[in-house]
Model the fold of this input.
Amino acid sequence: MYCNYCPGYCCYRLKGSVLHITAEDINRIARHLQIADGEVRKQYMENKYTFRVNEDGSCIFMAQDKMIKRCTIHEARPAQCLRFPYGNPCPYIEQEDLLEVIQPRVELALRNAWQNGATCPESKKS
Ligand code: SF4
Ligand code: SF4
Done:
């Protein structure tokens, strides 16, 4: 599956798109983080319906110090994240115009992480 080797293009907010978070999602994430539902809302929600995003548009739950497997709540991720791309081929792999928007943001995150001392996970094995 491409997702295992992807920097999470679908985890960046695009103009006109929204990640819709349900009460069930919040409760699952709260249990995963071992905090109250209200604390999830307070710390991570932008409004009643969606998560906050970082300056580059990446989801508030995205790890900034690695380039694959970046969702820090993967086991408890929202239903919309779990279902995307809904049984279809991933649009980020298929559509160059989408990649053109996201790729510079991913590269900036990689550059920042590198400058802050991130190391390649593979290099830790030896
Ligand atoms: S659904 Fe597409 S963009 Fe999202 S992680 Fe998987 S391959 Fe990457
Ligand atoms: S919750 Fe995880 S999978 Fe969903 S957008 Fe955020 S980082 Fe991506």
